[in-house]
Specification:
The complex is a heterodimer of chains A (about 250) and B (about 270). By secondary structure, chain A is mainly alpha-helical. Chain A has helices at about 1-20, 25-45, 55-85, 85-90, 100-125, 135-160, 165-170, 175-180, 195-200, 205-215, 225-250. Chain A has one domain (about 1-185, about 195-250). Chain A is built from eleven helices and no strands. By secondary structure, chain B is of the alpha/beta class. Chain B is built from nine helices and ten strands. Chain B has helices spanning about 60-65, 90-95, 110-120, 125-135, 155-165, 185-195, 210-215, 235-240, 255-260, and strands at about 20-30, 35-45, 50-55, 75-80, 85, 95-100, 170-175, 200-205, 220-225, 225-230. In chain B, the strands form two sheets. Chain B has a six-stranded mixed sheet with strand order 6-7-8-3-9-10, with helices on both faces. A four-stranded antiparallel sheet of chain B has the order 2-1-4-5, covered by helices on one side. In chain B, helix 3 crosses helix 4 (about 125-135) and helix 5 packs parallel to helix 6 (about 185-195). The longest helix of chain B is centred in the C-terminal third of the chain and has 14 residues, at about 185-195. The termini of chain B are far apart. Classes of the chains: A mainly alpha (about 250), B alpha/beta (about 270). The interface between A and B is medium-sized, with 23 and 29 residues.
């Protein structure tokens, strides 16, 4: 176990070096969500009625999820490059824990997303985002978004291992980036027509966005919090099991 | 072992009394309906350089992947350094190093960082000294702090092989080590492999180039349609042919000789004229 942890740390350091040497991946990850933030707050936001809160406060939680969704497409991409290039075969023929290769990518994804999220929150603060959240609420926000990132990261491992082209590996994240549009992330669900509203209120983004929004606004989270956690854990368990199955089947 | 097979002399093998480093019997592997290996028999003497010769798609890489625990066979047994690859993969991985068909180097890292990476993954103390030693040995000192992305094909391959030597594994697999390399780089790699012999490392290399097998290998096995159809030293394989006829042929230089002579390399006569 001790040596496995050592292997994970050596391999994680390797992929973090990759990110440090091409920081553009972190910047491009943050560009789409920041552009959406600017567009919606300064152009469209005036026409959206979210009650008494200011629109940037309403919007930021959803933008954070979009940041993660665009960030994990790089996770899949990095894993894809490794698998193609033959270095994974070298690692797998060495006396190291085989899962270490995947965990290193997962941890790197967590760190890279954390940095992108910090950049987006920073832009939000400049644009006037304010929160009265105390330390405990902040920890809850970090916990739920961290869990969401972990779940989507394991989801990204699947195309990273199976894709045959670069387009295939990056294409899978588009639906994830657009899912927040059919949720409470940009506008309240109350104004949506019946079936759309039903979908919006029963998909994971709404529960997670509402939870984070309430934590920031210091209003009661209610049972949305548990639904959000349940969604994240559910996606995580399914994605992890699926990814691990593909990974060991590759060695068949 | 060598006596049982009926071969009389093993001059190149420094340790003829040792058990074979690699022993393969009845190895089979299919991908769907396509039978790639249909009963491969192989016995690689310890400390020898052994070439697995075959055309593209003959199954050479499949054999190497099974021996390096990257792929499970469908049937038969494969034993490396006394460990069965199916039941003792951990011990097999302790004993081997794989230099795959595509240089398994990290392009974003420098040459030195690549060596450090492998040394650390092998949990070796003094990884820095090991890396510096290998850079010197493989003539990569100057390039050591440059990103591998800037390396030539030959330098990449040398680094690749250097990475495989970390931890002194007794068995080294080289899967098509010179495929895609220019003639100069090819000679560099050949020299590297020649330098390994005599140090007790067993080398199993696959190649589709006849001259490469001829140049490097103590023994050669020809893999064709999923099985080994001929095996032995070069002399033994030559003996399988009908007796040599004497013919007078004007000796023309090969294009490779001309190319190397013009660019001023190697020992070709009148080499550096241009």
């Amino acid at each position: 176990m001790n040596t496995s942890l050592q292997d994970v740390s050596v391999l994680t350091r390797r992929s973090l070096t990759h990110i440090l040497r091409s920081p553009d991946t972190i910047i491009t990850t943050a560009i789409t969500p920041v552009a959406m933030l600017l567009l919606f707050v300064y152009v469209l936001g005036g026409a959206i009625d979210v009650g008494s809160t200011q629109y940037v406060d309403y919007l930021l939680p959803g933008i954070l999820l979009i940041t993660v969704a665009s960030g994990i497409s790089y996770t899949g991409y990095r894993l894809f490059l490794d698998t193609r290039g033959g270095i994974v075969e070298r690692f797998q023929s060495m006396p190291i824990s085989r899962a270490a290769v995947l965990w290193a990518h997962v941890l790197t994804s967590m760190v890279a997303n954390l940095i992108s999220l910090a950049v987006v929150v920073g832009v939000g603060l400049i644009m006037g985002f304010r929160t009265g959240a105390d330390v405990l609420s902040w920890l809850a926000v970090i916990g739920i978004i961290g869990l969401f990132t972990l779940a989507l990261t394991w989801l990204a491992v699947i195309p990273g291992l199976t894709a045959t082209t670069v387009d295939g590996v990056s294409g899978f994240s588009y639906p994830l980036i657009f899912l927040p549009f059919i949720s409470s992330a940009f506008v309240p669900t109350a104004g949506m027509p019946g079936p759309v509203r039903w979908f919006a209120e029963h998909q994971p983004v709404t529960a997670i966005v509402d939870t984070v929004r309430n934590l920031f606004a210091t209003t009661p989270v209610g049972h949305d919090g548990w639904i959000a956690v349940a969604w994240c854990v559910g996606i995580l368990v399914v994605a992890y099991a699926w990814a691990m199955r593909i990974y060991s089947a590759k060695l068949g | 072992m060598t006596l049982r097979q009926g071969w009389t002399l093993r001059v190149m093998n420094p340790n003829p009394t040792l058990a074979p480093a690699i022993e393969v019997t009845g190895l089979t592997k299919s991908f769907g309906d396509h039978a790639v290996l249909t009963g491969v028999e192989l016995s690689v003497p310890s400390g020898s350089v052994y070439a697995l010769l075959g055309s593209n798609g003959a199954g050479k890489t499949t054999v190497v992947k099974i021996l390096s625990t990257l792929l499970r066979s469908d049937g038969g047994t494969a034993v490396v350094q006394g460990y069965d690859v199916a039941t003792r993969p951990g011990e097999v991985r302790e004993s081997i190093s794989l230099t795959g068909q595509f240089a398994a180097v990290d392009e974003v890292l420098t040459g030195r960082e690549n060596l450090l990476l492998v040394a650390r993954l092998r949990h070796l103390p003094r990884a820095g000294e090991i890396a510096d030693g290998l850079l010197a040995r493989f003539d990569l000192v100057e390039a050591g702090d440059r990103k591998v992305a800037t390396y030539s094909g030959g330098m990449r391959r040398r680094l690749d092989i250097a990475m495989s030597l970390i931890g002194d594994p007794p068995v080294l697999f080289l899967d098509e080590p010179t495929t895609g390399l220019d003639p100069q780089s090819r000679i560099e790699v050949w020299k590297t492999v020649e330098d390994l012999t005599g140090q007790g490392t067993t080398v199993l290399l696959t190649t589709q180039y006849l001259d490469e097998a001829e140049q490097l290998a103590d023994r050669i096995a020809i893999l064709h349609e999923g099985r080994i159809i001929a095996e032995g030293t070069l002399a033994e394989l030559k003996a399988l042919m009908p007796p040599a006829k004497v013919e007078y042929v004007e000796k023309q230089p090969t294009l490779e000789e001309i190319f190397l002579a013009i660019i001023g390399r190697t020992t070709a006569p009148n080499g550096a004229q241009q």
